[in-house]
Structure formats: C-alpha cells, structure tokens
Write a structure and sequence with these properties.
Blueprint: H1 16-47, E1 58-67, E2 70-77, E3 80-88, H2 97-114, E4 125-129, E5 136-139, E6 142-145, E7 150-156, E8 161-162, H3 163-169, H4 177-196, E9 199-200, E10 209-211, E11 217-219, E12 226-227, H5 247-250, H6 258-273, H7 283-292, H8 305-314, H9 325-338
Antiparallel strand pairs: 1-2, 2-3, 3-7, 4-7, 5-6, 8-10, 9-12, 10-11
C-alpha cells in the first residue's frame, strides 16, 4: 500500500486482505493484554485478605472515643455510616522491626476473631486495613493524610454509644427492671454466642458494650479476645480491666471462658445499680481484696433475689462453680417470664 506525496492513500491500492490480517493481529494482542490484566487483578484479589477493605472508599471523620491504643472515629465506607478504630503504631523508624511484627500480629489476631462473627448482639465487622498511607481523615480544610504505620478496623456505627455512658446518665433515677433484664439478656446472649464459637473476650466491661438506636446491646472491642486454648495453662496473665477481672486472672493463674462469666456478673450488678464497682479502692486494694478477701460489689436489698442469685453464681471465686453463659441466658429469660419487679 503506497502513500501519495500529500500523505493520502489511494482506495484502489489498499490491500484489504493485508489490512484484515493486521487488524486480527492487533485485536488478538489487545485481547491477550486484557486477559493478562484480568488475571493480574484476580491474583491481587486472591492475595488480599478477605477482611481487607479498599481504603479509597473510606472517609474518616470526627473522633468519638479515645483509648489507650488509639482513637475511634465516625466515618463513611462505601456510602454507609461506620465507626473506624484507628491504631497508630508511631512514625516510621520509631519502633523496632520486632515491635512492629508484634503489633501486626496482635492486629491480625483481633481481625481474625472479629470478621468471622455474626450475631445480633455482636458489633458487625465490615473490614480492616493494615499499615496503609491511603487512609485519609476528613477535616474542614480538606483531607489529611495518615502515616503508613496506621491501621484501622471498620465496624457498624452504633448511635447509642457505650453502655457505660448510658448507665452513668441514669445513675440518679436508675433503670426500670424490664430494661435491666433486656440489657443483661442482650449481653448474655452475645457472650454465649462467643463461647459457642470458642472465643474468650477477656475484657468484658460496660465500656466495651455498645447500644444501637433501639437500645440493643452489642459486644465490641476484640483487642484482647482470643480463641480458647485447649490447655488452660496456655491462657495466663493479667488481661482485662481491673474491677471486672476474675480472681484467677488477677492472681496470674490459668483461666478459661469462665473469666468472662465472672466479668458478666460484675456488669450485671453495674446495670442494675447504674454505679461503678469499688469506687473508693485503689488498684492494688481491689486486687488484694478480690483475691484474698473474696470482695464483691454490695448487692442492694431491693434487688430481686433471682437476679442477685445470677450475680453471685457468676462471680463465684471458683471458676468451675460458675455457670456457662447459655445457662445464664436461661436464668435471665426466666426473669422475664416471671415478670419480677424491682
């Protein structure tokens, strides 16, 4: 095929068969390249953990809570209201490689526990991202980039806030007995589900329980949760929050899921009384009194005996004498059937 001096090609000199061959080769190359891109994308998807989110779809907004290990923000993910737990591992170079490995391991452990759970009394897990600089915080002046050592857990947003805050608001007037039973039953059912899944929460407290818009309790914060060990000796150490920790945990002894049952007993007392356990004792005094003197919160005389019995059974010093959480659920359900009033 020849061009004229002005750059045009005469129609009668076009080799149509040659042009068809060229087009076939071009389309075959394009098809092959597209297939390679599809395979590459598929491989990327396979290599990405099933719990990983797309950070570009996440908008992080205002802080709604602060804790020892990070902050919790409101946010939007893929058009939905969410809560975003941000964990900051510090600026690059400020931690040793072994420290970062330990932090990553702990983060993956939390996510591995949470993303498999599905229960109406457990906060719904949406996804997570680990160590990415693609996370952005929305501000009045635009978006603020995050350091690459920040990771996040994204869960459903629960507008009712922490159960502890709700109890503090009702400290003076207390709660109606039917509300006490409803809150306790929600928490008991959530813990019963976790234990059926062989998960020990290890930090059961009202601060780690959230409320949705209908006042349903949902268990949150699986930062120290773990799969229950076959050998109790594999689970030791002071893990949890003082005031809610079982004697065996405070004492550094081996423990199992029954440590959650003890903590539930303290939460049940707190829900009924709308008060804090041991408000006048120091950390060391609580530890000593709970372990050595069998100290427990004082149950008010007005508390129905059946409810007081649940508390006492749950916080028994002997873990083997504490009920399983499914039995606790049955005991609290019985209270609703009997219609006891405070």
């Amino acid at each position: 095929m020849k061009e004229s001096s002005d750059g045009f090609v005469r129609a009668d000199q076009i080799d149509l068969k040659s042009l068809d061959d060229q087009l076939d080769r071009h389309f075959n190359r394009a098809w092959t390249m597209e297939k390679k891109r599809e395979v590459g994308t598929k491989e990327e998807r396979v290599s990405r953990e099933e719990w990983e989110i797309d950070p570009t779809k996440l908008v992080i907004k205002t802080v709604i809570a602060r804790g020892t290990f990070g902050t919790v923000h409101r946010g939007i993910y893929d058009g939905h209201d969410v809560a975003v737990k941000l964990l900051d591992w510090g600026e690059e170079g400020h931690r040793t490689e072994s420290e970062l490995t330990s932090l990553r391991s702990a983060f993956i452990q939390e996510v591995a526990v949470w993303h498999k759970l599905d229960h109406p009394n457990v906060t719904k897990f949406i996804g997570a991202a680990m160590g990415t600089s693609e996370l952005k915080i929305q501000t009045d002046n635009g978006h603020l980039g995050m350091p690459s050592n920040v990771c996040c857990v994204v869960v459903e947003y629960l507008p009712g806030g922490a159960l502890k805050s709700y109890l503090i608001k009702n400290r003076r007037k207390k709660l109606a007995f039917k509300v006490v039973v409803q809150l306790a039953l929600d928490l008991a059912r959530g813990l019963s589900y976790l234990h059926a899944e062989k998960i020990v929460h290890r930090d059961v407290k009202t601060e780690n329980m959230l409320l949705d818009k209908t006042r349903t309790v949902k268990i949150a914060d699986f930062g120290v949760a773990r799969v229950e060990a076959q050998n109790p000796n594999d689970m030791t150490g002071e893990t949890g929050t003082l005031g809610y920790m079982a004697p065996e945990v405070l004492n550094g002894n081996p423990y199992n899921r029954k440590c959650d049952v003890y903590s539930f007993g303290i939460c049940l007392w707190e829900i009924y009384c709308c008060d804090m356990p041991y408000p006048d004792l120091t950390f060391s005094e609580v530890t000593s009194a709970v372990v050595r003197q069998n100290l427990r919160p004082e149950i008010p005389r007005c508390c129905p005996s059946a409810l007081a019995n649940v508390m006492k059974r749950c916080w028994d010093a002997n873990p083997d004498k504490r009920p399983e959480m499914d039995e606790v659920v049955s005991m609290i359900e019985a209270l609703t059937h009997r219609g006891e009033e405070a």
